[in-house]
Amino acid sequence: MGGGGGCAQDYRVSAFPPGLHAADADAQFLAPFTTWPDGPGGVALSQFQIAGIHCAACSGIIEAALLKLPGVAVASVNPAAARLALRWRPALVPLADVLAALQAVGYRATPDVAAPARELRRQERRQALWRVFVAGFMMMQVMMMATPAYVAGPGELSPDIDRLLRWASWVMTLPVMAFSAGPFFRGAWAQLRARRLGMDVPVALGIAVTFVASTGALFD
């Protein structure tokens, strides 16, 4: 702890970032770098960039200083990225007090306005992985349902079982069309409404034509 305190002293700053120390901690000001899980006026999750972090001990110093404030529930510092994630109630503790607590231990915070964009990209990547998973999983199930038709000898597969397997294969493609391929259809519809032709239109058209043709061949 003593070494961490020395680190903080070496990088002490004497002024807040311009405009932050006088700003009210309201939803409009916090919006660029804050999310409100329970709606404005409740718990806020704010992201800050911290200047002056040069060792792992700095994280503990910052977190301990902020957790002493009323209304601060969680303070989590990523020392490698020099970022602070603060879960707090602005109605109980002004932003000026948060910044003053950081300054008192030798650090300066600026709003991490890129945090919402990073979170959006993270959610999009996660959603894309789920779409790939659903498409791959359903593909394996469809192939499993189609295998008996390829390996069965003449007369070994009854018409009822064959019809059941065909219906099961078709039903399993519906989540792929609705969920995995959904972004292509939504993008194509938006482009057509805007009277613009983008890549989503031919991709969605190809998927739709293939699905209709395969459906016709499946039940022919």
Low-confidence stretches: 1-25
Q: Tally the beta strands.
A: 5
The structure class reads alpha+beta
Question: What is the N-to-C order of secondary-structure elements (H for helix, E for strand)?
Answer: HHEEHEEHEHHHH
Q: Oligomeric status of the shown chains? A: single chain
Classify the fold: give the CATH topology of the largest domain: Alpha-Beta Plaits
Q: State the major sheet.
A: 5 strands, antiparallel
Distance between the termini: 76 Å
Shape assignment: elongated
The Rg value, from CA coordinates, equals 28 Å
Number of domains: 2
Specify the CATH architecture of the largest domain.
2-Layer Sandwich
> On the 0-100 scale, what is the average pLDDT?
81
The percentage helix is 55-70%
Question: Roughly what fraction of the amino acids lie in strands?
Answer: 5-15%
Would you state the CATH class of the largest domain?
Alpha Beta
Compose a concise summary of this entry.
Helices cover 56% and strands 12% of the residues. The N terminus is likely disordered.
Structure, explained:
This protein is α+β, with helices and mostly antiparallel strands and 220 residues long. The protein folds into two domains: 112 residues, Alpha-Beta Plaits (2-Layer Sandwich); 87 residues. The chain is 56% helix and 12% strand. The chain contains eight helices and five strands, in the order H-H-E-E-H-E-E-H-E-H-H-H-H. Strands 1, 2, 3, 4 and 5 form a five-stranded antiparallel sheet that branches. Helix 1 packs across helix 3, helix 5 packs antiparallel against helix 6 and helix 7 packs across helix 8. The longest helix has 37 residues. It is elongated, with a radius of gyration of 28 Å.
